[in-house]
Design brief:
By secondary structure, the chain is α/β, with parallel strands linked by helices. The chain has eight helices and seven strands; from the N terminus they run H-H-H-E-H-E-H-E-H-E-H-E-H-E-E. It has one domain: Vaccinia Virus protein VP39 (Rossmann fold), CATH 3.40.50. A seven-stranded mixed β-sheet has the order 3-2-1-4-5-7-6, with helices on both faces.
């Protein structure tokens, strides 16, 4: 099967740096920094442009990146587009609930996780709390869509209820977080959460 044309163009724009800083450049740099100090692996819930950065980091630092995406057509198109996934990518075409229920991360520690899947509050909360026990101390979970610009962005196919989870995290003792409100994909917020012993 040939490469998906839209994804091929997108990949070329990302690696050429045309919009890397405006879209996922911040995530790429922060993740590179985190992985320089921690030796665990990477989890991505919800594949897309971010997969390009995360899979390249996995290959660069010899880690595995576990990509979880429920859309069959999305995974098929990305798999057939050069550069979306790397040699250290492990792709799971299923829901995040199925992924955690089947315990694909048994005995595996993560240094880094990026959650950008189902944006409903109940589901993103479940993804977040299912991920925490898999993290090594001092690792980071990144959440996208944490700062909707206005109420029209709080529908499920946009930011949904992820901002509510961000508020929960900010009010929870022992969970340290910081939110970048600008200069992230679509300008809707990227929150980084440090996982320490106090979180468990």
């Amino acid at each position: 099967m040939s490469e998906h044309p839209a994804l091929k163009n997108l990949y070329e724009e990302v690696v050429s740096g045309k919009f890397a800083w405006k879209r996922w450049g911040l995530l790429g740099v922060l993740c590179d920094y985190v992985l320089a100090f921690h030796h665990g692996h990477i989890l991505e819930i919800g594949c897309g442009e971010s997969s390009i950065f995360l899979s390249r980091l996995a290959d660069k630092l010899n880690r595995f990146c576990y990509h979880v995406e429920y859309s069959r057509s999305g995974v098929k198109n990305m798999k057939n587009t050069n550069g979306y996934f790397g040699k250290n990518s492990k792709i799971f075409n299923m829901t995040s609930d199925e992924f955690f229920e089947k315990d694909y991360l048994k005995d595996i520690k993560l240094s880094l996780a990026f959650i950008d899947g189902d944006h409903r509050y109940e589901q993103v909360s479940k993804d977040f709390y299912n991920t925490i026990p898999k993290m090594e101390k001092g690792g980071y979970i990144f959440l996208h869509d944490t700062c909707p610009p206005d109420e029209t962005w709080t529908v499920d196919h946009r930011c949904g209820g992820v901002f509510q989870l961000r508020r929960d995290i900010e009010e929870t003792m022992g969970i340290h977080s910081f939110t970048f409100k600008e200069n992230t994909a679509f300008g809707v917020g990227l929150t980084m959460v440090r996982i320490d012993d106090g979180c468990y």
